[in-house]
Design goal:
The structure holds two protein chains of two kinds. By secondary structure, chain A is an all-alpha fold. Chain A contains four helices and no strands. The relative contact order of chain A is 0.21. In chain B, strand 4 and strand 5 form a beta hairpin. Classes of the chains: A mainly alpha, B alpha+beta.
């Protein structure tokens, strides 16, 4: 899976949590939780959904590395 | 004959729109079965029945708006025969006094009389009442504006009628945070816990010694509850909030409480709550920590007598003896009803809550 496909998957998972999301307005290098109204439960559900889509376990210790869209795509690309 | 009436699903509900029946005449129902879906100003709610019997007659048609207490259906009690039933009670709109002109006007305007409060002699519905009610039904309201109005009405009533007192306490969270990190490190993703679940469980357990904070007012009398049905304030994506209950939260294992919380949040946002979840909370918790606020000053949700708030768990200066450190802390606040308790009791409760959060392994 290339970076564009991963990005598409990430955004699809995010849209299931936050249907009001306008993808075009997302700044990929800015923390997602500053741009999208996501509480702890939303964030947990989002990461669980990514784990299922990419068939991997994301340790909680890695959550801090996954703040932006760019970081998420890079993290997943390195493991898929 | 059992009358199934539209229940009140919160202090902010005067009426509801029947969206659909989940039963039909002849169906057997038991306690807890979902029999209808009703749209309130906040959400579509699955309404449960709390009696056993056989559905005899559906009196209300889907699409109609009915006042709280309106008879929506009649059921036969176990062993009861239809012929033995008393004369069929009409739905309230037909039993209430309605002037012929008002009835005609209601037909012209397509207004459901069940939803029209009567201001004429003896509570009779007048032409003016019908015209005033036109456009007031949920189907004609902007949903968000309707919810805002309902929340405002409930909170205004609370501030007007409930003598609030407020207390807060900064609680060290190092032990809880470290325990949670250790616990989540050994769990698969889907089983991980949120700090919010620990806080809810700690509140529920701490309330065990404070029946004056955990209960509801009914007919002017405060009734403490032996179980803690924890209302959880959940913000909705389109704006507004609901605060449905996690039943008997003090008795739930932390894993189960977390599952219930996740399920409740998901269903609240999908508009799929149950009537008992809306009507049963005995106290509410409002957690705004995710938004980054330091502390909350919440408003009690009638008929409850207290609400607990949490701000953000964050590193802050913390003095231990004469040593100043940086440690994770949270500001827990309590708004409580002076008719049911006083500040001394509230302070003891916050101290009990703080103690519970120092022993996360016991939650």
């Amino acid at each position: 899976m290339n970076a564009a496909e991963i990005r598409g998957q990430v955004l699809a998972a995010l849209k299931r949590i936050a249907p009001e999301l306008e993808e075009g307005e997302l700044e990929p290098a800015r923390p997602l939780r500053d741009q999208v109204d996501l509480d702890s439960m939303d964030w947990l559900n989002f990461l669980v959904a990514l784990g299922e889509r990419f068939e991997l376990e994301i340790p909680e210790a890695d959550y801090a590395k996954l703040g932006t869209l760019d970081e998420l795509v890079a993290y997943l690309a390195a493991r898929c | 004959m059992i009358e199934f009436r539209l229940p009140s699903l919160g202090a902010d509900m005067d009426e509801g729109k029947l969206l659909e029946w989940k039963v039909k005449p002849g169906d057997q129902v038991k306690r807890g079965d979902i029999v209808a879906v009703v749209d309130t100003s906040k959400a579509a709610v699955e309404v449960e029945i709390w009696q056993e019997g056989t559905v005899h007659e559906l009196l209300a048609a889907p699409g109609g708006t009915f006042r709280v207490g309106a008879v929506l259906a009649r059921l036969l009690a176990p062993g009861e025969k239809p012929g033995a039933a008393p004369a069929a009670p009409a739905v309230p709109a037909e039993r209430r006094k309605v002037s012929p002109a008002a009835r005609k006007r209601a037909e012209e305007l397509g207004v459901s009389l069940e939803a029209v409060p009567g201001t004429g002699p003896g509570g009779a519905v007048t032409v003016e009442d019908v015209e005033k009610a036109r456009g007031r039904g949920p189907e004609e309201k902007d949903k968000a504006a309707g919810m805002r109005k309902a929340i405002a009405a409930a909170m205004s009533r609370s501030k007007r009628e409930v003598p609030h007192y407020y207390l807060s306490e900064t609680i060290p969270m190092r032990r809880a945070s470290e325990w949670l990190t250790r616990e989540n490190a050994r769990r698969p993703m889907a089983s991980r816990l949120l700090m919010a679940a620990l806080q809810l469980k700690a509140v529920a357990l701490a309330l065990g010694d404070f029946p004056d904070l955990n209960g509801t007012w009914r007919e002017g009398v405060y009734r403490p509850s032996s179980a803690v049905h924890l209302g959880v304030a959940i913000s909705l994506r389109g704006g507004g909030l609901v605060a449905p209950a996690i039943h008997d939260a003090g008795r739930l294992a932390l894993d189960e409480l977390m599952k219930r919380l996740a399920d409740l949040v998901q269903r609240a946002r999908a508009g799929s709550l149950r009537s008992s979840e809306m009507s049963d909370p005995t106290i509410t918790v409002s957690n705004l920590g995710d938004t980054g606020v330091e502390a909350t000053f919440p408003v009690i949700y009638p008929p409850q007598a207290a609400i607990v708030g949490f701000g953000r768990v964050a590193p802050r200066p913390w003095a231990e003896g004469e040593t100043l450190r940086v440690a994770p802390t949270v500001v827990a606040s309590l708004a409580a009803d002076h008719r049911a308790s006083d500040g001394h009791r509230g302070a003891l409760f916050l101290a009990a809550l703080a103690r519970r959060l120092q022993e996360p392994e016991t939650l």
